[in-house]
Each structure stands twice: as structure tokens, then as C-alpha cells.
UniProtKB/TrEMBL annotation:
This is Helix-turn-helix transcriptional regulator. Residues 3-69 form the HTH luxR-type domain. It comes from the Bacteria. Keywords: DNA-binding, Transcription, Transcription regulation. InterPro entries: Sig_transdc_resp-reg_C-effctor, Tscrpt_reg_LuxR_C, WH-like_DNA-bd_sf. The keyword Transcription applies.
Length: 79
């Protein structure tokens, strides 16, 4: 996760939100409750992340993250 976050300059909070959505399938409301922030703040963080990767789609963000994880998993297995 750290390599992905560093590559796209995600903040710690943005990384936390991405994990909650990608790994646990949390809704924006569930993320807000878990992080003790408003749902609007969650949406703002998601918008910031999507801007950093130059997309308007949460699906593209999740796809990029999942592909990164898969690539790193394969890389680590072959070493």
C-alpha cells in the first residue's frame, strides 16, 4: 500500500479510505463512521484521489489499486 500511496502522493487518510473501500467494501457512510468524519469529507477525499490519478471513476481508482497489488504479489513471489 505504501508504494502505491507514495507513487500517487496519497495522504495517510486517503490511503486509509482506499483500504476500507477496496478491502472491506465499505460504503461512504461506513467509511465516515469508521474514520469519525462526515460523509462529505469522504467524498472530498475520493475526489482528491481520483484527481491525482486523473480519472472521474472510483472503479478506475480501485482497478489501478488492485492491479498494483497483483503486480507486487507476483513480483514478490518470483524473488
Amino acid at each position: 500500500m505504501q508504494l502505491f500511496s507514495d507513487a500517487y502522493h496519497f495522504t495517510q487518510r486517503e490511503s486509509e479510505i482506499l483500504i476500507l473501500i477496496a478491502a472491506y467494501g465499505y460504503s461512504n457512510r461506513e467509511v465516515a463512521e469508521q474514520c469519525l468524519i462526515s460523509e462529505k469529507t469522504v467524498k472530498n477525499h475520493l475526489a482528491n484521489m481520483m484527481k491525482k490519478i486523473d480519472t472521474r471513476s472510483i472503479r478506475k481508482l480501485l482497478s489501478l489499486f488492485i492491479n498494483h497489488v497483483i503486480a507486487h504479489t507476483k513480483e514478490n513471489r518470483s524473488t
